[in-house]
């Protein structure tokens, strides 16, 4: 096994060799890491050398030994920076940019956001090539290297786990000697990657799920077993680039009346509606929260942009006077660091494979070729490289997103999924045997 393989003599001069990849420890407060042992294994197999900073995966429970077994060298931060051509990070370490002069730093930049723009200026000034993994276009071929999708998936699932913990009641229906208990009711607002993941998780835990989005994706909700909430007003919410657009004042009025009604009925609300670069749309108002049942929970995944709920406090959890828990955490993927890192690192491996096209020695030259080829160059490369050789690069116009399937007509009417407790009372499917194990799917007493 290639543990402690010798490093390239100088990471600034890769010439015809395959590149050397680095991975540095993230700043305090970031528990994910950009490369995992599995991803390292794939990179080493493809012909790259990999050097990781000692302890870089510790917070995500990947010990140095696992990286060594996967073929990486373990080194100090200074050595990682010196020896690597391309350094993978979750959050690019701006304070180290001068040390990365002439090299490439890959990470979560957000090139269209104010903070991302500032980071690009700093990288440009330091002579660093900065790659923004969040700028991947929303086309099918790019899905496997899209960190926005992978991290949103983790956030959606963790949101339900957090909600469940704060709810402090059963999620699934139960009929026990100590009484009958209905399943929880969950309302998911925004059916992008995070919303769909939340629906699947809530459903898997036994909750009865309803959903809504400005885009009619009722067929996707139905495929996850969720009902669709209908706002009685006709307007398409589909915008450009796969993102939603902002809706009219009249529509928002009808929407508020619907959400008020649904909020009174449900136990858990998960909001995920975001319009990139703009404040999060306000969907749940304080009067709706006041009318929610005591003990119910809102998890606001849009807290970073100000929240979908008017009372959300960014990065805080609190209970309102009427007993509603409001969760505004913005670092949910970091609360599942092993899983989130595994997905992020797999995205990085897929990115490398996409660019290198099976030839590890061609990775760096392919990036240059794609950038020099103008519109003929690979759209993924042109979208993610923010600056190179001390010059900022303009992000190309995003291509039209891959079309989603047309919603089925039948899914357009309001559907409230049947309470499985009501349906199954009289059968024994939800009864527990004397050991407390659920009897499922028709096993009779
Ligand atoms: N590579 C790809 O093809 C790719 C990658 C990622 C996402 N996508 C698709 O792009 C779409 C958006 O996904 P996302 O997770 O990035 O979304 P997002 O994070 O931009 O937004 C989350 C959801 O909130 C919804 N929303 C926005 N404003 C709203 C409002 N006022 N009220 C209610 N809902 C509102 C959006 O329509 C979206 O579904 C999805 O269809 C997804 O499947 C495609």
Strand-helix topology:
Elements: E1 20-23, H1 37-46, E2 49-53, H2 64-70, E3 73-75, H3 77-83, E4 86-88, E5 104-107, H4 114-126, E6 129-132, H5 147-167, E7 174-176, E8 179-181, E9 185-189, H6 193-204, E10 208-212, H7 218-223, E11 227-228, H8 249-265, E12 268-271, H9 286-290, E13 297-300, E14 317-319, E15 325-327, H10 337-356, H11 363-372, H12 379-384, E16 385-388, E17 391-392, H13 420-424
Parallel strand pairs: 1-2, 1-4, 2-3, 4-5, 5-6, 9-10, 9-12, 10-11, 12-13, 13-15
Antiparallel strand pairs: 6-16, 7-8, 14-15, 16-17
The protein binds nicotinamide-adenine-dinucleotide.
How would you describe this structure in keywords?
Rossmann fold; disordered N terminus; 13 helices; alpha/beta; single chain; 445 residues; binds nicotinamide-adenine-dinucleotide; 8-stranded mixed β-sheet; 17 strands; 2 domains; 7-stranded mixed β-sheet; globular; 31% helix
Task: Describe, in plain words, how this protein is organized in 3D.
With 445 residues, the protein is of the alpha/beta class. It has two domains: 20-144 and 336-392, NAD(P)-binding Rossmann-like Domain (Rossmann fold); 153-334 and 415-424, NAD(P)-binding Rossmann-like Domain (Rossmann fold, 3-Layer(aba) Sandwich). It is built from 13 helices and 17 strands. It has helices spanning 37-46, 64-70, 77-83, 114-126, 147-167, 193-204, 218-223, 249-265, 286-290, 337-356, 363-372, 379-384, 420-424; strands at residues 20-23, 49-53, 73-75, 86-88, 104-107, 129-132, 174-176, 179-181, 185-189, 208-212, 227-228, 268-271, 297-300, 317-319, 325-327, 385-388, 391-392. The strands form three sheets. An eight-stranded mixed sheet has the order 3-2-1-4-5-6-16-17, sandwiched between helices. Strands 11-10-9-12-13-15-14 form a seven-stranded mixed sheet, with helices on both faces. A two-stranded antiparallel ribbon has the order 7-8. Strand 5 (104-107), helix 4 and strand 6 (129-132) form a beta-alpha-beta unit. Helix 1 packs parallel to helix 10 (337-356). The longest helix is centred in the middle third of the chain and has 21 residues, at 147-167. It is globular, with a radius of gyration of 24 Å. It starts with 19 loop residues before the first strand and ends in a 21-residue tail after the last helix. It binds nicotinamide-adenine-dinucleotide. The site of nicotinamide-adenine-dinucleotide has 33 residues, from helix 5 and helix 6.
